[in-house]
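Q: Hi! First time doing this. I have a protein sequence and I read that you can turn it into a structure. Is that right? Here it is:
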Amino acid sequence: MKIVIVGTGYVGLVTGACLSEVGTDVVCVDVNEEKIQNLKNGILPIYEPGLDRIVERNTLKGRLQFSTNLDEVIGTAEVIFIAVGTPPGEDGSADLQYVLKVAQTIGEHIQGYLVVVTKSTVPVGTAQKVKATIAKALEARNKTIAFDVAANPEFLKEGAAVDDFLKPDRIVIGIETEAARNLLQQLYNPFVLNGHPILFMDVPSAEMTKYAANAMLATKISFMNDIANLCELVGANVNEVRKGIGSDPRIGNRFIYPGIGYGGSCFPKDVKALVRTGKAFNHNLRILEAVEQVNEDQKKVLFSKIKLIFGENLSGKTFAVWGLSFKPNTDDMRDAPSLVIIESLLAAGAKIQAYDPIAMKEAKHVLGYKIFYAEDAISAVKDADALLLITEWNEFRLPDWKLIKENMNQHILFDGRNIYNAKDMLEKGFTYYCIGIKTN
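A: Yes, that's right. Below is the predicted 3D structure, encoded as structure tokens:
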């Protein structure tokens, strides 16, 4: 089967690489010539565990190719996935200009029947806009060529995207015709040998499923953070509360860990877009509006704790920051809580020494050199007045606390992810603060 993926970002590259892994011929297309040349040379634009090996292996076998010329490969494709960016506009709505530009190009160059699949996260109704755009371009050519548009949202977790694609817990596909269903069933059959389902449904339902799933997960996170803040005020231990409610199978124990808020490429953007969709139909999604506000406030909680200890003016104080990416096993800095915390510290006059195992290159693009980038975790704490754990990378879970203590100016730890034990840290000589537990 011949597949074209338009867009070589997080979704497009993982999709293309994993489809080629099962023997499909894939061409990944992007307008960014430098990115395509780097991919041809084995240099990936994102960090995702295991992805580099799949790209290298399938590129060498000729099953995975990269191009900047979409119009040249449209005629060879049986399925074209649109996986370009849909950045949020000022009002929170998804910007579809890149999606529709691809649709326009498809309409101008389509030669025979194919299925066009929206893989980008897009609002309900986008597939119809794609269909109308292709049809209009065909009309301008005075051509009548059959095609289908399907919706196939991705459910990939950054840091585990390869496994999620190769061994999905479900595949959601919105279709309008049996022809599209049969073709996409054939494409995805190798990925459901574990017995997990392909869920075929109407196109609007598939588009809504993606937003609803991310919104539900974001809601669980904000709910638990709200409870954590109350726990701290009343003297309860949020970790015990989490265990108590997580053992209820109706609730489950995933996405109920308190912390400093969610970030990344999906949850913030998708919650905003879904709220905006609701407003477009005169329906206020009040729960999600609160979810978003709680999350923005939660990103400020750690800085509020710092001000209580050090005061409003942080001039002359040095803070070590462990972790910059929004979550472990990715270099993604989009909407990362670290950005809010770092900007707040800098505005108060603090000096920052940061370390992240993977994301420092990306952080330099976002933050520039307003902070010091340390070579390792120990270098980051040198002469620091406090240590802030922001991202729970594995290498931060069991560090050499004796060596850390020797290097720090003051022994104060702010644990933004609750990965350390309060009693243990106090015994090691640290003043310890976390989320949802009154420790001092």
